[in-house]
Design a protein that fits this description.
Rossmann fold; about 35% helix; disordered C terminus; seven-stranded mixed sheet; five-stranded parallel sheet; about 325 residues; alpha/beta; disordered N terminus
Length: about 325
């Protein structure tokens, strides 16, 4: 039998692209079409630059840049017969905005939709004329807000056809997977850049100073957390403590400990600094660390045995045990 004509039912099937997974939106592709589609999706997947390397330490972080590239590609694959795109605030609305612009469709939220408001042009139809809408989320865990928005739409119009699109379906929990009609990637261990402040707010966090809180060249603030951090751990020498404390107070950095390098300036090698930061992060009970230098972030993670976020390249470095074990467990299941 010529394998070119063997059909495969690929609906809702995931295929690995790097460390992530993509779901094919179509069904019954023969081998030639499969290869063609695979190449297309493989090209699209290149937007996920920060995928987990099989032998490395970095988790994949979906950045703001990635979202735009992914959403533009995704818009080409989604059905074109929707009357309106409805975003679930805030993160879902970010993606919905790109989809609506690319697909040339009105944009709204559930609350605005039921009030008769959509964002498009002056000659746009009112929501009462719409029959089919696409509700968009970035990722779904419990789906609580999504269910609330769907209920609002159904209460507004019981005959409204509602479909749900989720950019990253990898974090959908059991019992909520039936909510999703379309998803583009399935990256279970992915972290979204726009949700990371919320993640860190609920953890014990230690941070680097230069390149994270402070721009070393200009002395201007860079990433100032809107919440208290457990410790600021810097490679600056102890003699600079007064100046650093003044800078942190001026720029509203809330912290419990300021830990400074007690050795000589000649002792600040990569290995020594990594060991110093890792040991002190452990000492204060940190669950995460922010480090500006990628090489240091990798070293600290290996010694710290906890994840390290590098805002410079927007990567998360973590011990392999933190993702290899869950991956093996998923493979067995």
């Amino acid at each position: 039998m010529n394998s070119e004509f063997i059909n495969y039912n690929l609906k809702n099937t995931y295929f690995p692209i790097g460390s992530c997974m993509l779901r094919y939106p179509s069904i019954n592709l023969n081998v030639r079409e499969f290869i063609k589609s695979h190449k297309v999706l493989l090209a699209s997947a290149k937007a996920l630059k920060h995928a987990v390397h099989p032998h490395g330490h970095n988790w994949n972080v979906i950045t703001f840049d990635d979202v735009f590239s992914l959403a533009v590609d995704w818009a080409n694959m989604l059905p074109k017969d929707f009357d309106c795109i409805i975003g679930v605030p805030r993160s879902g609305l970010l993606i919905a905005n790109v989809l609506a612009s690319k697909m040339n469709l009105p944009l709204s939220t559930a609350d605005d939709f039921v009030r008769g408001t959509v964002w498009f042009s002056k000659d746009c139809d009112k929501p009462s004329k719409y029959r089919r809408v696409l509700v968009v989320e970035d990722a779904i865990a419990t789906g609580r807000q999504l269910k609330i928005d769907i209920a609002k739409l159904k209460a507004y119009d019981a005959n409204l056809e509602i479909k749900v699109a989720c950019l990253n379906g990898g974090q959908v929990k059991k019992g909520t997977s039936g909510l999703v009609d379309y998803c583009y990637i399935n990256a279970r261990d992915a972290l979204a850049e726009w949700t990371m402040h919320g993640i860190f707010k609920n953890t014990t966090l230690a941070v680097d100073l230069d390149g994270v809180l402070c721009d070393e060249a200009s002395n201007n603030p860079l990433y100032i957390p809107a919440f208290s951090v457990e410790a600021v751990i810097t490679a600056r020498l102890e003699g600079e403590r007064a100046n650093v404390e003044t800078w942190l107070k001026k720029h509203g950095v809330n912290y419990r400990h300021l830990i400074m390098f007690k050795g000589k300036i000649t002792e600040r090698t990569l290995r020594n600094v990594a060991k110093y930061k890792a040991e002190n992060a452990k000492e204060v009970g940190a669950e995460w660390f922010w480090e500006s230098e990628p090489d240091l972030a990798r070293e600290i993670s290996g010694l710290f045995k906890k994840p390290v976020y590098c805002p410079t390249n927007r990567l998360v470095y973590a011990p392999k045990s933190m993702w290899v074990k869950p991956f093996i467990s998923r493979k067995k299941n």
